[in-house]
Design goal:
three-stranded antiparallel β-sheet; 316 residues; globular; 3 strands
Length: 316
């Protein structure tokens, strides 16, 4: 979800038909127009600047998962001011990462980022590792994040498949309005087949295709008239057939355990001392759901119970 911080690469390849999927437009027909569009229209985001460094890229990748850019920006900037290097975060209790995470949602990401910072400090001298395998071995980092950091921070050649990229490939290459609900082996294979051979061009393609999905090839109200590859888009050429697969999953929040968990954490983030159960009981009227949400937070390591019915953010 970020762009590389490496220098501007050589022009995109336009003749890499050898790795193109059979019966599909060659990747080179897509690379050049999309990268040229990105060079002109990419958003100026802090994690795309050279001063962000690999740690800034990693922080952004954790924060941007299922969270819009406008919500991430203020938290990201404060985070990097407070913890400019992994070792700075590693010295703090994990509860401080949860506190600083604020209202970004899915706060287990904060614990995972803290765990990654500790591992980077202990295993790699405080520097975000350069190798994909080393990134993947860090706690809390999966295939997507490892590929994204290797590509965007170090300019390496990896298939970076987030929701935006998957939607672009589904439409432009396979002619479907939406990709499957969960990433498939076929999508991963296609993404690898479409990668430019040159490392720097590949990393630029990863960032550019992601930005195209975020700004132009959006889930709703797509701006095909502004798309640099509209004339080559299989979905557009097919008349933009409507999705006929499983229903798209919508996300709800109001009244869910996620909402209750968020309210409980909000109280604990604001507290400087442990919070009694009686205070937490005020955040939600339904006692069974409230207890379930609190138990879930404890089980996830986001809240630490203390004797006497007190609770706090975790110290260890």
């Amino acid at each position: 979800m970020t762009a590389p911080t490496t220098p501007t690469p050589a022009p995109a390849q336009t003749d890499d038909t050898s790795d193109a999927p059979t019966g599909r437009a060659p990747g080179g027909a897509l690379h050049g127009p999309v990268i040229a569009w990105f060079d002109e229209h990419a958003r100026d985001l802090p994690w795309r600047r050279s001063e962000a460094g690999p740690w800034g890229v990693m922080v952004s990748e954790f924060m941007l998962q299922q969270t819009p850019v406008n919500r991430v920006l203020p938290v990201y900037e404060q985070w990097l001011i407070r913890w400019p290097r992994p070792a700075d975060l590693a010295k703090e209790p994990p509860g401080e990462a949860v506190r600083a995470w604020g209202r970004l949602g899915y706060p287990r990401r904060a614990l995972r980022l803290h765990g990654a910072a500790v591992a980077i400090t202990e295993r790699h001298g405080g520097d975000v590792p350069t190798e994909h395998a080393q990134l993947l071995a860090l706690p809390g980092i999966g295939e997507y994040t490892a590929a994204a950091v290797a590509s965007f921070a170090y300019g390496q050649r990896h298939a970076v498949l987030d929701t935006n990229v998957r939607r672009v490939l589904a439409r432009a290459v396979t002619g479907m309005q939406y990709p499957p609900n969960a990433t498939t082996a076929a999508e991963r294979r296609l993404a690898r087949e479409l990668l430019p051979e040159d490392e720097r061009t590949a990393s630029r393609w990863a960032a550019a295709s992601m930005e195209l999905g975020a700004l132009i090839c959006t889930a709703k109200n797509e701006a095909c008239h502004r798309c640099p590859i509209a004339a080559r888009c299989a979905w557009q050429l097919a008349g933009k057939p409507e999705h006929d697969g499983p229903p798209r999953r919508g996300q709800t929040y109001a009244g869910t355990d996620r909402q209750v968990r968020g309210r409980l954490l909000a109280v604990l983030r604001e507290a400087v001392t442990p919070v009694p159960q009686s205070i937490l009981d005020r955040v939600w009227d339904e006692p069974v759901q409230r207890a379930r949400a609190l138990d879930g937070l404890v089980s996830d390591g986001l809240v630490e119970p203390l004797p006497g019915g007190l609770y706090r953010l975790p110290l260890t």
